[in-house]
Write a structure and sequence with these properties.
By secondary structure, this protein is mainly α. It has six helices and two strands; from the N terminus they run H-H-E-E-H-H-H-H. It has one domain. The chain has a two-stranded antiparallel ribbon. The chain starts with a helix and ends with a helix. Keywords: Membrane, Transmembrane, Transmembrane helix.
Length: 176
C-alpha cells in the first residue's frame, strides 16, 4: 500500500551503513564521510519518526511540553477500524520492524568494532547511529506495547508467567 514509504524506510538506514563501510575506500576525507553519514542518519530519524511509522504500522510518538514547562512523552497506536480490517499490510509491518530492529544492532556492532580497534574518530559517528536509530526503536516499542506500561515490569511479568506455567505443568507435578 505504501511502496514509497517502505523504500525510504530502508533507503536512509541502509545508505548510512553502506557509506560507513565503504567510506575509507572511496575518499580520504573523514569530515565528508562523517557529514554524509550523519545527514543520512538524520533523514532516517525524521522519515521513520514522522512518516513511515504512521503509514506502515500506524504508530507515532512525540514529546509535548505543557504550560508549566514539563515534558511529556506521548506514544500512540492507531485504533483498529470498526470493520475489523487491517490498516497496514503484513509485508509492510515486517519490513518496518525488520529495518527498525536490525539496523541499530548493526550500529552497536560497529560501536564495539570502533572501540576495540581504537578508531576513536569513528566512534562519535557510530554513537550517533546508535542514538538516533535506538531512539526510534525505543519509541516504537513503547507505542507497540502501550505507553503506560513499564518495559521492565512487562518483562518481569512475562518471565513470571512462564515460570508459573513450568511449575503447573503435569510432568513436574508427577515428580513431586
Amino acid at each position: 500500500r505504501h511502496p514509497v514509504a517502505s523504500f525510504f524506510h530502508l533507503f536512509f538506514r541502509v545508505s548510512a551503513i553502506v557509506v560507513y563501510l565503504l567510506c575509507e575506500l572511496l575518499t580520504s576525507s573523514f569530515i565528508a564521510c562523517m557529514v554524509t553519514i550523519i545527514l543520512l542518519l538524520s533523514c532516517d530519524f525524521w522519515a521513520v519518526k514522522n512518516v513511515t511509522g504512521r503509514l506502515m504500522v500506524g504508530l507515532r510518538w512525540w514529546n509535548q511540553v505543557d504550560d508549566d514547562g514539563r515534558s511529556h512523552w506521548v506514544f500512540e497506536a492507531r485504533k483498529v477500524s470498526a470493520q475489523g480490517g487491517k490498516t497496514s499490510s503484513e509485508a509492510e509491518s515486517r519490513i518496518f520492524w525488520l529495518g527498525l530492529i536490525t539496523c541499530p544492532m548493526i550500529w552497536v556492532i560497529f560501536a564495539f568494532s570502533a572501540l576495540f580497534s581504537f578508531k576513536v574518530k569513528w566512534l562519535a559517528v557510530v554513537v550517533m547511529g546508535v542514538v538516533l536509530q535506538g531512539a526510534n526503536l525505543y519509541g516504537y516499542i513503547r507505542c507497540k506495547v502501550g505507553s503506560r506500561k513499564n518495559l521492565t515490569s512487562m518483562a518481569t511479568n512475562y518471565l513470571g508467567k512462564q515460570f508459573l506455567r513450568q511449575v503447573r505443568s503435569p510432568g513436574l507435578r508427577k515428580r513431586w
